Structure formats: structure tokens, C-alpha cells
Request: fold
Amino acid sequence: MNRSGARSPARALRLTPVGRWSSALKAVGAALSVQAVPDRPAQAWTWPDPIGSRRAAGAGASSEHPGHVPDALASAPAPPAPPVLTQAVPWRAAEALPRLPNGAIDTWPVAFTGADAAYARLWFQGLLLTLLTLGGYLPWARIACRRYLLQHTRVAGQPLDDHRSPWAMLVRQCLLLSLLGGVMLAAAGSLVMGLAAATLALAVWPMLKLLGLSQRLQRTTWARRPMAFEAGLLDIYQALGWPLAGVALLVWSWLAVAGWGHAAGWVLWGMALGGCLLAVPSWCWAWLHFRQSHLRLGPLRMRWRLGPDALSNLMLQTLGAALLLLVFNLGLAGMCLGGLLWWQAEVGQGAGLAAGRAAGVPAWALAVLLAASVGVAVGLVWPQAHARAHKLVWNRTGNRHVRVRCRLRVPAIVRMQRRHGLLLVLTLGLYWPWAEIQARRARLNATVLQARVGVAVLAAHWPVK
Reply:
């Protein structure tokens, strides 16, 4: 007989009347839970509703420890309501952004609503004024076209915009023209002075490129919030220094080999040229890594997670396909030329005259034939390579809060670009505004942003311009 005065949960359950089964089960469950975890504090485990979250409270926790909530959060007051997108809040670091609970992912659509006819009118107006002003109106025309494209691009329902000043673009344009004019004047005096001036221009060009990128992105806004491009001179020279140094070395070595006139020199120059061609994929990767990894969206800095091998494989596949098509085109052109000469001999001009004509084929005809073969090969290979590269680059852009996802269908975009190329050739380039609008609509409508933060959360920690 138990004389301790305490009944076990099973005995308590046996002595409970039938009408109190529910309350007894609750008491047993509480007793068993306390006995199973005796050192766990008896407190109410509630989850606060994150700012900007679309889920109800009590869904989950942070991504680092989904099953754990600090004690401070359990006793913290309820968070304030999500701020509107026009509210200016001081900047905070990316680590301070509250993420969606339980690893939830929100999808922000990207949509383009521009019209072909409206953009074509704006483009032709800028072209006409640029021709009438001998190029002076070009900055205003470029900014007007870019503003139209950005204002009709919406990310998560909010439009983009461009607030650049045409005068800053005009200053950069004058600097570029001055560099080009100086190189041409130096080359008119002597070839060596021209190459020296070109080398100095190549050394200065990365600075102008960085200035243009910074101004363009810092003046680009989303929901009145400016983007940023955070990079220094050392960063851009690390990305573009080796390619520019390789080009300058090839040009100067060509001049030295031409002055030497020895066959061994040309062999060495050919080996240097081959080495530079093999380094092109790594140079392209360095530039894309620089461009994608220094973009900042408010408190979020983007990253590019793509190794050099993937880009090298894509470029090698493109080069191999282009060479195969070039060989096929040259063989087809040779067969057509041989058939034409045979037909001339068959109609009565005589074999000797046909041979004389074959030997006297003008050089310009062969040059046109070679250019046409190269153009057809590039026109067939380039659209697919461009679509694959666009999808590859943007699918690897993002960070732990926001990632870009490009769902572009490569066969559809290849057919569209080939049709655009044919129409551009037939219209002598006047079809360009329609081609640009259609290509931009296809790319943007196939792009989404997957985020682990709410739109209002990101806007709250991104100051208004």
C-alpha cells in the first residue's frame, strides 16, 4: 500500500470519474512532459511576427537555428507594423534584416510594360536631334531612352528610374573623344608615338569606365531608393589590368617583330597571341565578377557565385561551333564558285577562258565571300551563346537574402534574336528600337527575385533618396 500521499499519474487517471477524462488527460500530459524534461523552464514559447512577413505568428525561427528562440524574443513586445515604401528609415546592416520565418521564400516578379511604338518614336526623335547637332544631343537621347526603359520596368510592383544628369555624360563623352583624337594625331606623326598614346589611353580608360558605372547605378533608383556600385580603382584595375596589358604587349611586340623581320620573331609572337586567346575566358570571368559583385541594393551587397570553369566551357563550346560552321560555309561557298565556273565553261566560253577567269577572280570577291561566311557563322552561333551566358550570369547573382532567378527559354530567345538580326540587316538598322523592346520584354518577364525578406522590410532599411 502506498503511504507516501502522492499518486502516480496512472492511479490518478484510474480514480478520475468518466466525466473528467479530458481534464485528466491534460494533467497526465503535463506531468509526463515535466518528468521527461525536468530542467526545461516552464514558459510560453511564442514566435513574434517578423516585420513585413506574410505569415502568422508562431510559424518558425531564423534560418541559422530554426528550432530555437532566444529568451529575449519570448518576452519582447510585439513588433511595429510594416512601414510603407516611401518612409525614410536610417540605414542598417544586412545582418540586422529580419528574415521570413521557417525558411519561407517570397517571390518578387519583374515585369516590363513598355510599348514598341512609343519607344520607337522616342528613339527616332533622339536619333534625328543627334544628327542635327552633330552628336551633341547624344547624352540627352541616351538618358531619355534609358529612363523610358527603366520607368516601365517594375520589380516587386515598384518602378525603376534614372536620375542622371546629361551634362556628366557629356563630360565623359568629351574626355573619350579627346583621348581618341590625341591617339589619332600622335599616330599621324609616327607609328611609335601613336602606339605610345594608345597605351596611355588604355591605362586611363578603366578610370572612365568606373566613373560611368558608378554614376549610372548611383542615379538608378527603385521605389525612390538609389542603388550603388561600390568599387575602387584597385578593383577595376585588377579586373581590366591584365586584358589591357595583354593587348598593349601584343601590339608593341608586333611592332618589334615587324622591325626585326626574322621568322623566329613571328613564331614567338604567334605563341604570345595564342596565350592571350587562351586567357580570354579568365579575363571575361574577372570582368563579370567585378561587375556583379560590387552592386549594392540598399543594405544588401550582391555576390556572384560562378567559377571560371563554367564560363570557359561555354566559350569553348561557342568557339568550336563557330569554327565548324565557318568551315562548312567556306566549303559551301567553294562549291558554289566551282559550279559557277563549270557552268560558264559548259555554255560555250571554252575551258581555257574558264581557267583564265578562275585564275583572275578579283580579290574583293574573295574578301566578300570570306566576310559573308564569317558573318553567317557568327549570326548562327552568337544568339544561343548570348542567351546561355545571360541566364548563367544572372542565375548566379545574389546573396543570403535575395537571389536572381532567370527562367529564360534559350530556344525561344534564339529564334527571336535571329529574326531581329535578319530584320536589322534588311532595314539597315532602323528596326533597332522594336528589337530592343522585344528583347528586353522577353528577358525581364522571365526573371524573378527570390527573397527571404519581405519587400517592406527591405524598403524600411533602405533610405529614400
